[in-house]
Design brief:
Helices cover 73% and strands 0% of the residues. By secondary structure, the chain is mainly α. Helix 1 packs antiparallel against helix 4, helix 4 packs parallel to helix 7 and helix 11 crosses helix 13. The chain starts with a helix and ends in a 7-residue tail after the last helix.
């Protein structure tokens, strides 16, 4: 029995290594060959200024709260720069992030289903154009995808073994993913609710204690981040990074047919249209767009609630189209 178990585990390690090598090779080919021969995405190295923010962190520290600067991703890049690395070191790390994501997908498929399912899922992710598209330049998506996948993996582990240690791992990893981009937070909330109901149904004190530990771990990770936001904004309480409403409203523009099908360049025309919309929202609120992103977030949140921008039908279309396009916000 013991020998069979060792052989079984060794085979899974072999599969993980194969997936990692294939995914890394696919990422490197995208960086050096395919990305420069396409015209669907921006070919500039730092299109959204993440590298610029990271250099500012190294030189001046964190001095301004913006939705892109106040993210774990530029903080990670800043560590690379502090250690003497360059933009291309970051790109290579993103190739490794892609490989790690594919291995995690294999492990999730293996744990929930079987080795064959895990292998198919891992190889599918290794060659998925949406995942590869973000590797060659300074986008947060490769790191974000890794963190979200890692969060899912920790929740699967916790579901199988609801120990306090596994719960703390969910809390720490999940909050780090949230600090990269808040899109993972609803998943953590739903997971917590479902796990809590399951614990009550089973009358399991262990599960309840573990869930409490998970939320405490999340709070511990979040606390210094929120305190930094409080200091930088001059005493305003900003729990997470501003920008959720910005991304939500941009989705209405980016999922329009002409942009979703790439008949018009989304990173130019859709971006400009979205920015003009935000300028108008700011003017209507008596402020100036991009002068204070905390104020912008408050203005855009009111724009989200406006009936002409947030009907159920338009939102359903936005979500549906967004599932099948890589350029949506």
């Amino acid at each position: 029995m013991s020998a069979a178990r060792i052989n079984y585990s060794s085979q899974h390690i072999k599969y993980s290594v194969i997936i990692a090598v294939v995914a890394t090779a696919a990422a490197l080919l995208t960086v050096f060959v395919f990305f420069h021969s396409q015209n669907l995405g921006l070919e500039t190295l730092d299109p959204y200024g993440y590298g610029k923010f990271a250099h500012e962190f190294v030189e001046h520290g964190f001095t301004k709260l913006t939705r892109r600067a106040a993210s774990l991703y530029p903080e990670l890049i800043a560590v690379v720069y502090r250690l003497g690395g360059s933009d291309y070191v970051v790109i290579f790390l993103q190739c490794l992030f892609h490989a790690a994501t594919c291995v995690l997908v294999f492990r999730i498929g293996l744990r929930i289903y079987n080795a064959r399912t895990g292998l198919l899922a891992g190889f599918f992710c290794a060659f998925h154009p949406m995942l590869l598209r973000y590797v060659p330049n300074l986008h947060m998506e490769s790191f974000l995808t890794l963190m979200c996948t890692l969060t899912v993996w920790t929740t699967v582990r916790f579901h199988d073994r609801p120990t306090v240690a596994n719960a703390i791992l969910v809390g720490v990893v999940g909050m780090c993913a949230t600090l990269t981009k808040g899109v993972i937070l609803p998943y953590l909330g739903v997971f917590g609710i479902v796990s809590g109901l399951l614990a009550l149904k089973q009358r399991s004190i262990q599960r309840v204690a573990a869930l409490v530990a998970m939320f405490i771990a999340m709070a511990v990770v979040l606390a210094p981040w929120t305190y930094r936001n409080y200091q930088v904004t001059g005493g305003r309480f900003v729990l997470l990074t501003p920008g959720a409403s910005d991304s939500f409203l941009r989705g209405y523009v980016f999922t329009r047919w002409e942009f979703a099908t790439l008949r018009k360049p989304p990173y130019i025309d859709a971006e400009n249209e979205s920015n003009n919309w935000f300028r108008q929202i700011a003017r209507d609120a008596g402020s100036q767009w991009e002068q204070d992103e905390v104020v912008d977030e408050e203005n855009n949140a009111r724009g989200r609630q406006a009936p002409d921008h947030d009907t159920a039908a338009r939102h359903a279309r936005k979500v549906f189209v967004g599932l099948f396009t890589f350029c949506t916000k």
